[in-house]
Write a structure and sequence with these properties.
By secondary structure, the chain is α/β, with parallel strands linked by helices. The protein folds into 2 domains: about 110 residues, no CATH class; about 190 residues, no CATH class. The protein has 13 helices and 7 strands. Strands 1, 2, 3, 4, 5, 6 and 7 form a 7-stranded mixed beta sheet that branches. Helix 4 crosses helix 6 and helix 5 crosses helix 6.
């Protein structure tokens, strides 16, 4: 049976199964989760629609303690195993696996540095020193990532979620990261049919005027449509014409800078729940992607602290 006690004795396995180190797990659990759990449970139990009459503490208890339930959530996100296999590993019925994960997700989301929390701070930046803190080098990088979903049954949804570039049904998420790779802004999922730049035009984050926004060629037209912000794109090769040596050098340096957002997307997709075909309900996608982005942000912030 998997548990924190057993896994923590094998640090390499712990990181492979959960995506974070034992020390990072302990810091999140001891400093945030355990302190907010009681208040979160009271709110959860009294928000029920069945007009709860029994006192808190009555009724059936969780078979796993809070620490093991947190491990269970991380293992599920990292490996994206089925509930049947998770039930075997944690000695639970698969319905209890589903219930246990769902009831702790909101608490974990509150305890992590999700992009929404960071973006709410960056919108209030005033001085260059404050901007430099969240945007080292005064640079921001924006790109979209997609994830395959099962083929929809409804004909309209089938058309709207089909990505012609990827040749699959997918959802898209737009990210903005800073130079160390910290996710500053993340959109809700969008239908796979939409173009990256169309998503950006209708849902783009605002950055301080000193910050240079760096894009790839999928965002052609941003300089014209949003002249108030500083934008940099690579040069596009014209038909039957070669790029000049200066333009090639610019594109090379541009790629070296922009690779940071590709590394962040890679970090997200190491959690297989964000890279495999998404089997859960789409209404849960934004909450799950928030938690994974928060875990990635937590690791990056600790590495650069």
């Amino acid at each position: 049976m998997l548990s924190y006690y057993g896994l923590s004795k094998k640090p390499l396995l712990f990181k492979s199964f959960t995506g974070i180190t034992v020390q990072e797990f302990d810091n999140i659990y001891d400093n945030y989760i355990i302190k907010k759990y009681h208040k979160h449970e009271i709110k959860r139990l009294f928000n029920r629609k069945d007009n709860r009459k029994r006192k808190i503490g009555a009724g059936r208890h969780f078979k796993l303690n809070l620490k093991d339930r947190f491990v269970m959530l991380l293992v599920y996100y990292r490996l994206y195993i089925t509930y049947t296999l998770a039930g075997f590993l944690f000695d639970l019925d698969q319905s209890n696996i589903c219930r246990g994960i769902q009831k702790i997700e909101q608490l974990v989301r509150k305890c992590l540095p999700i992009p929404q929390k960071i973006y709410s701070k960056t919108k209030r930046l005033r001085t260059p020193e404050e901007v430099e803190k969240y945007f080292p080098g005064f640079m921001a990088f924006t790109d979209c990532t997609d994830q395959q979903i099962p083929r929809p049954v409804d004909k309209r949804r089938k058309k709207n979620f089909y990505s012609g570039i990827k040749k699959k049904h997918a959802v898209k998420t737009q990210l903005m990261v800073n130079n160390p790779g910290l996710i500053i802004h993340k959109t809700r999922y969008k239908k796979g049919r939409r173009h990256d730049y169309d998503i950006y035009k209708k849902d783009h984050p605002s950055t301080p005027k000193e910050v240079v926004n760096i894009f790839d060629l999928g965002y052609l037209g941003v300089e014209k449509d949003l002249p108030e912000q500083l934008s940099v794109l690579p040069y596009r090769k014209k038909r039957n014409q070669d790029l000049s040596p200066e333009e090639k050098e610019h594109n090379k340096n541009h790629s070296k800078k922009r690779i940071v957002i590709e590394h962040t997307i890679c970090r997200l997709k190491k959690y297989r729940i964000m890279s495999d075909t998404f089997r859960n309900r789409l209404r849960k996608y934004n909450g799950i992607s928030d938690i994974v982005a928060g875990l990635v942000n937590y690791r990056i912030m600790n590495q650069h602290s």
